[in-house]
Amino acid sequence: MSADPDLMLRPAVADDVPLLVQVMRAAREAAPMPDLPYADREVGAHLAARLSMDETWVADDGDGPVGFARLTGTWLDDLYVVPEAQRSGVGSSLLDLAKALRPDGFGLWVFSSNVPARAFYARHGLLELESTDGRANDEGAPDLRMVWAGEQPLSYLRAQIDEVDDELAALLARRTALTAAVQEIKPVGGPAGRDPEREQQIAERIAPMVPLLPPEAVQRIVHTIIEASLDAAATPGRD
Ligand SMILES: O=C(O)C(=O)C[C@]1(C(=O)O)C=C[C@@H](O)C=C1
């Protein structure tokens, strides 16, 4: 649907903050997501403090804010539209603005339960890249990281792959060192003398944490890592 012709997108000012708190609260209460775990005063103080650090944009229909978006350098941290103005193009206008302001792409977190918001972002070309059990967010509710991969999506996604590969390399280094340490106290005699039962337990324990891979694939990866680590531990002068 096309947006209200009177709709204006403008940078937020300090006077907007109390109304933005109301927009956020109304939007959250109407959506299938956890309640906001803060008082209005705390939300207002946070938004006010972020005004000078982030880019906060208000969607104003002439009678005041009906939605707003808050962008950091790489995240769309808030995008809220009051229930009465939803499905009228306000959210799309704010999201299009975010894309124009961050042509290299951005990420956002959405609660897994918020199926309408996930569908809205998917319709606008965002990808779901990661899910969590919610332990790390203030609401303790499962969430998803979605990204808009920007105008050069291959570059954006490759940069994300490089970041994850750095983490994988660090984990691989730690794990290889642990396999070598176990060999010091309980030699299995190199790749030939492995403990298949223990390796099976490891693969079965972690497979559910990698739902996008079949359990057999996780098992192959675990075995490959252990084999290579045992090889390295048995090869003098590698470290
Ligand atoms: O847990 C052990 O007994 C180990 O030797 C460690 C380890 C591993 O790296 O996880 C290595 C070889 C065995 O086949 C099983 C597991």
From TrEMBL:
Domain Chorismate mutase residue range list: 148-237
GO molecular function: acyltransferase activity, transferring groups other than amino-acyl groups; chorismate mutase activity
Alphabetized PROSITE patterns for the sequence: CHORISMATE_MUT_2 (PS51168), GNAT (PS51186)
Ranges of residues in domain N-acetyltransferase: 7-151
InterPro entries: Acyl_CoA_acyltransferase (IPR016181), Bact_Acetyltransf (IPR050832), Chorismate_II_sf (IPR036263), CM_dom_sf (IPR036979), CM_II_prokaryot (IPR002701), GNAT_dom (IPR000182)
SMART domains hit by this protein: CM_2
Pfam families, alphabetized: Acetyltransf_7, CM_2
UniProt keyword terms in alphabetical order: Acyltransferase, Transferase
GO process annotations (BP): chorismate metabolic process
Name listed for the protein in its UniProt record: GNAT family N-acetyltransferase
